[in-house]
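Dear Dr. H.,

I hope your travels went smoothly. While you were away I took the liberty of generating a structure for the chain from your last submission, since the lab meeting agenda had it listed for discussion. I wanted you to have the full record in hand beforehand rather than looking at slides cold. The sequence, exactly as received, is reproduced here:
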Amino acid sequence: MAKPRHAEYLQIVQDIKNCTKCPLHRTRKNPVPGEGPIDTEIVFIGEAPGRSEDEQGRPFVGAAGQLLTKLIEKAGLKREEVYITN
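The corresponding predicted structure, in token form, is as follows:
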């Protein structure tokens, strides 16, 4: 029997938080699994979290995030309506 989507997502987030597969886990302050509704049709994926993202544990919160938020709003959407991750 397949897991419900939300349970699968929570498992992925937990896996990200516990990941030690590369050396980045040694210096990160906070894992950045992503945020937003998991059932949205629009997903933005960035290359890697930067310093601001690492400090806050949220994707696209630095200068690039401010630009992304403006572009999302210019498209007639709200940041809370899309999923954003790295």
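Two observations you may find useful: The first strand starts at residue 43 and ends at 45. Helices lie at 5-18, 51-56, 63-74.

With kind regards,
E. W.
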